[in-house]
UniProtKB/TrEMBL annotation:
<dbReference type="Pfam" id="PF02311">
    <property type="entry name" value="AraC_binding"/>
</dbReference>
<dbReference type="InterPro" id="IPR018060">
    <property type="entry name" value="HTH_AraC"/>
</dbReference>
<feature type="domain" description="HTH araC/xylS-type">
    <location>
        <begin position="151"/>
        <end position="249"/>
    </location>
</feature>
<dbReference type="Pfam" id="PF12833">
    <property type="entry name" value="HTH_18"/>
</dbReference>
<keyword id="KW-0804">Transcription</keyword>
<dbReference type="InterPro" id="IPR020449">
    <property type="entry name" value="Tscrpt_reg_AraC-type_HTH"/>
</dbReference>
<dbReference type="InterPro" id="IPR037923">
    <property type="entry name" value="HTH-like"/>
</dbReference>
<protein>
    <recommendedName>
        <fullName>HTH araC/xylS-type domain-containing protein</fullName>
    </recommendedName>
</protein>
<dbReference type="InterPro" id="IPR003313">
    <property type="entry name" value="AraC-bd"/>
</dbReference>
<dbReference type="InterPro" id="IPR009057">
    <property type="entry name" value="Homeodomain-like_sf"/>
</dbReference>
<keyword id="KW-0238">DNA-binding</keyword>
<keyword id="KW-0805">Transcription regulation</keyword>
<dbReference type="GO" id="GO:0003700">
    <property type="term" value="F:DNA-binding transcription factor activity"/>
</dbReference>
<dbReference type="GO" id="GO:0043565">
    <property type="term" value="F:sequence-specific DNA binding"/>
</dbReference>
């Protein structure tokens, strides 16, 4: 199975029980191995190559079908889905595979209230991934707080990067001062919040350049740039390529 780079407007899960391959998500390369789960959020781009004989499940759903309302379940879903690759041991994966078997069985047979049954199993699926994520963390409460702020910031960036590029906007949404937010990002990632914002702009531009045929000037406008030439200079300074050259070289 070989796919060209593309993007989805829905959540995408690839659960691999056994197999090998390569999976590029938002221009980061991952190896496909036994007992792993990939999760993509809407808007992310990916390119997938699975070798013959790979076994597992592919699941896609949008927020109209599954979007937890309960505060704790929302947190669980957010944490689990914000990690693109979950590497699991065989025992944990076996438990997840039983849940996936149930989802597939319900979808195939469409029994009474099968959609509610599938949603309940998705709850269990993400709870198990959340538990595994928590088990792998060896950190202080302060680090946990910093991680929570970082995850919330990254979600806000994905939602608002087209219209808001100021640190003050994101600090206010997170109920922090710009100094506090910069300190947390510096401690967590070794960079400033402004650098993180610029990286998100470039990431979204790359997504559009390689996964769509949208003209460069339209991409610039969609990212909030009134002057496409300024966007082109910014992109070249960040990547070493003008946008159209980047598209031709990497697509």
């Amino acid at each position: 199975m070989v796919e060209k780079i593309h993007r989805h407007d829905f959540f995408f899960i690839l659960a691999v029980a056994k197999g090998r391959g390569d999976h590029q998500i938002d221009f980061t390369d991952y190896a496909v191995e036994d007992n792993c789960v990939f999760i993509l959020r809407p808007g992310q781009v990916h390119q997938l190559h699975l070798k013959k004989g790979t076994k597992g499940y592919l699941i896609g759903f949008d927020s109209r079908f599954y979007a937890p309302k309960n505060k704790k379940k929302k947190q669980v879903f957010s944490v689990a889905s914000f990690t693109n690759l979950h590497k699991l041991n065989s025992k944990v994966y076996e438990g997840l595979n039983l849940i996936l078997d149930c989802i597939f069985y319900e979808y195939l047979n469409k029994f009474t209230m099968y959609e509610e049954h599938i949603k309940a199993n998705l709850d269990l699926f993400f709870i198990e991934l959340f538990r595994e994520n928590e088990n792998q963390k060896i950190s202080t409460s302060n680090n946990n707080y910093n991680q929570e702020v970082l995850e919330n910031l990254l979600k806000l960036l994905e939602e608002h990067i087209h219209t808001s590029k100021q640190v003050t906007f994101y600090a206010k949404r997170l109920h922090l001062t710009t100094f506090q937010l910069n300190a947390i990002i510096k401690n967590s990632l070794g960079k400033t919040c402004s650098q993180l914002i610029n990286e998100q702009i470039i990431l979204e531009a790359k997504r559009n350049l390689l996964a769509t045929s949208t003209q460069v000037k339209e991409i610039a406008y969609s990212l909030g740039y009134d002057d496409p030439s300024y966007f082109i200079r910014f992109f070249k300074k960040s990547t070493g390529y003008p946008p159209e050259s980047f598209r031709q070289h990497f697509k």
